[in-house]
Amino acid sequence: LDTKEWLDNTRLPERPYREQQSSTLRKAIWQRPPVGWVKCNYDVSHHEGNKFSGLGWIIRNSQGICLDCGMGKFQGRQTIEEAECTALIWAIQCVWGLGYRKVIFEGDNLSITSIINNKTPNPRLRHYLDFIHQWSEAFTTIKFKFCHRENNVCADILARKAIVCNTNFELYRSCPGFLGYYVNNDVKH
């Protein structure tokens, strides 16, 4: 009974949950990167304090094909901005480690994307931002873009799944089965 209850409370929905929550004013359309680039969408499932937070990232090419993706968990941060920066740093390091050098990093936190692109001073995030800018120099070309939540479904699913995963980090060198529907849905549009 305990196992069934746990599974019922941690199972990802069968139907596309984002489609259920999407605004009628916006259509959820993931944008492919240009030829020669890859796009890494990233997201965080934030929990403050001692609870685990999850992060997820997915790398796709100009055809929308999932090349690599991963998820991990870490101790919660005080703010969502700190958690988003943590997820982005993990994504940057993983993408670099996998050998990609011409990358668009796309997340659904407009504040973080603006702060990074405008190099806006932020004392609370200074350490994170310095780290992101230092890592950025290791790439041939790097861009940071904002996308609406509806366009970041795959990274969000990975971030939420990370929290209930038995390991602290998972790397997939191709699209995992649980994500296939969502990746294909992005490509269709």
Q: N-to-C terminal Cα separation, in Å?
A: 41 Å
What is the N-to-C order of secondary-structure elements (H for helix, E for strand)?
A: HHEEEHEHHEHEH
Class derived from helix and strand content: alpha/beta
Contiguous helical run count: 7
Q: Which regions have little confidence, pLDDT < 50, spanning 5+ residues?
A: 1-24
**What is the gyration radius calculated from CA atoms?**
16 Å
Helix content: 25-40%
Instruction: Please report which band the strand proportion falls in: under 5%, 5-15%, 15-25%, 25-35%, 35-45% or over 45%.
Output: 15-25%
Strand numbers in spatial order across the main sheet: 5-4-1-2-3-6
Q: What is the approximate shape?
A: globular
Question: How would you explain this protein's 3D organization?
Answer:
The chain has 189 residues and is of the alpha/beta class. Mean pLDDT is 87; it is low at 1-24. The longest helix has 18 residues, at 80-97. The chain is globular. Helix 3 (80-97) runs parallel beside helix 5. The chain has a six-stranded mixed β-sheet. The chain has helices at 2-10, 17-21, 80-97, 110-118, 126-136, 153-164, 180-188, and strands at 38-45, 52-60, 66-75, 102-107, 141-146, 169-172. Residues 41-162 form the RNase H type-1 domain. GO terms for molecular function: nucleic acid binding; RNA-DNA hybrid ribonuclease activity. This is Ribonuclease H domain. It comes from Arabidopsis suecica. InterPro entries: RNase_H-like_dom_plant, RNase_H-like_EbsB-rel, RNaseH_domain.
